[in-house]
Amino acid sequence: HITGGVDGPLAGKKVVITAGPTFEPLDPVRGLTNRSSGRQGYAIAEKLVRDGADVTLISGPVALPTPVGVTRLDVDTAQDMFDAVHAQLPCDVFVGVAAVADWRAKDIASEKQKKTTDNELSITFVKNPDILEAVSKHLDLRPRLVIGFAAETQKLEDYAKAKLASKGCDAIVANDVSTGVFGSNSNAATLVDLDGFTPIAGQTKADIADFLSTYIQKRIS
Ligand code: CTP
Ligand code: CA
């Protein structure tokens, strides 16, 4: 089947995007998740497909329709998202927008856990794989352009710069979430790459998607 446009500035480019939260089960009826509506990742998928790209959207559980022309693969856990992303390589551009849970339960109960008489409960978590870092540092199939997102409540620019370096990606879109962004149509964002900071503050998620499409066109043409 045909995804993406035959024309448009991104025609012929394969883009893989992660979006939404991940869900890490604790037992059959409970789990750990992150707050993410998925709207930013979906807005980016919609814009890039309109600009001609072949877009695969790897989505955690969200309540959003699939943008027309986008190939969507649904996953729950970070490990499933990691595997789904790697199955899509090689691609030209990777954009990691998902709010991936950093941790998963070390042991997942096969039966619903009953409440006990204790007033405290301890659960051991183990670290999830870092999808953005693994794609950025892939030895054979690193995309030409790897872009991450970072939501921070403080020291936005310092943390974004540190993430750019530690993950080895080409750019990070840093979001200030100190004033409530989740589920809204707007973000306050700054892009950081090796050239420095480009503020894109006070714009809508669609505007950030437009900005990113232009940035991608500049970087991979
Ligand atoms: N990310 C990922 N896989 C993970 C964790 C994060 O792919 N296991 C990606 C996110 O999709 C995002 C970027 O990494 O593009 C930054 O996520 P963030 O949670 O801000 O970074 P962390 O390195 O997890 O740092 P922390 O949560 O401690 O701030
Ligand atoms: Ca994290």
Could you write a compact summary of the structure shown?
The chain is of the alpha/beta class and 221 residues long.
Task: Name the hetero compounds present.
Answer: cytidine-5'-triphosphate, calcium ion
Low-confidence stretches: none
Oligomer classification: single chain
Distance between the termini: 25 Å
Strand order of the largest sheet: 5-4-1-6-9-10-11-12
What is the global morphology?
globular
Give the SSE order as H and E letters.
EEEHEEHEEEHEHEEEH
Main sheet summary: 8 strands, mixed
Using the CA coordinates, give the radius of gyration.
18 Å
Number of helices: 5
The amount of beta strand, in percent, is 25-35%
The helix content, as a percent range, equals: 25-40%
Q: What would the average pLDDT be, to the nearest integer? A: 93
Q: What is the count of β-strands?
A: 12
- Give me the secondary-structure category: alpha/beta
Organism: Asticcacaulis benevestitus DSM 16100 = ATCC BAA-896
Function: Catalyzes two steps in the biosynthesis of coenzyme A. In the first step cysteine is conjugated to 4'-phosphopantothenate to form 4-phosphopantothenoylcysteine, in the latter compound is decarboxylated to form 4'-phosphopantotheine.
EC number: 4.1.1.36, 6.3.2.5
Family: In the N-terminal section; belongs to the HFCD (homo-oligomeric flavin containing Cys decarboxylase) superfamily.
